[in-house]
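input
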Amino acid sequence: MTATTPSTRFDRAASKRAQLLDTLTFLYHQRQRPISPIELEAETGFTKEQTVEILRVCRERGQVFIVGRGLYAPVVQHAPPRAISLTMLHDGSAKIEIGDELLSLGPLEYRTLTRLVGGIASETAMLAAEGNTATKLSAMAASAHRNDELLKRMAELLAAVAPKGQRGKQPKSASQPGAIY
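output
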C-alpha cells in the first residue's frame, strides 16, 4: 500500500477534473446538446458523488455552466490574444503577422479582406449609432412630452391670473396692431 500525500491527492483530483471536462466537451460537441451527470457517469466510470462534486468545482471555477436542471455545458474558452501587425508593401501586397504566423496577401486579396473587415466595422458602427439614435429619440420624445405638460400648466396658471375681462381671449399676435412684445 502506498502512502498518499496531499500533492498526489491533488494531482488525482485535477486529472479526474480534466477527464470529466474533456468528456463533457466531447459529448457536448458530438451530441449538440447539454449533457446530464448520468451520461458523464456512464462515460467516465465515476460515481454519482464524484461526478456531482467535480461538476460543482468546475462550475465554481467558471469551466462549466448549468443550462437547465441537471444539464451542463462547457464554457467556451478562447486562446489568449496574439500580437497582430500589418505591413504594406510597395507593390500593393500586404503581410499580416498574427503571433508566429505570417499571411502573405496579394493586392486583390488584401482589398477583398479590407472590404470584408470594413463592412463588418461599418455594420457594427451603424448598429451602435442606431442604438444611440433610438435612445436620443426616446429622450427627445420624453422631453417634448414634459414641455407640453409645462406649457399646458403655464396656460392654466396664466388663465387663472388674467383679469376677468381677458379670460378666454387669445393674446394679440405680433402681426396685430397694438401688440406689445
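quick obs: The helical segments are 6-31, 37-44, 48-60, 107-161.
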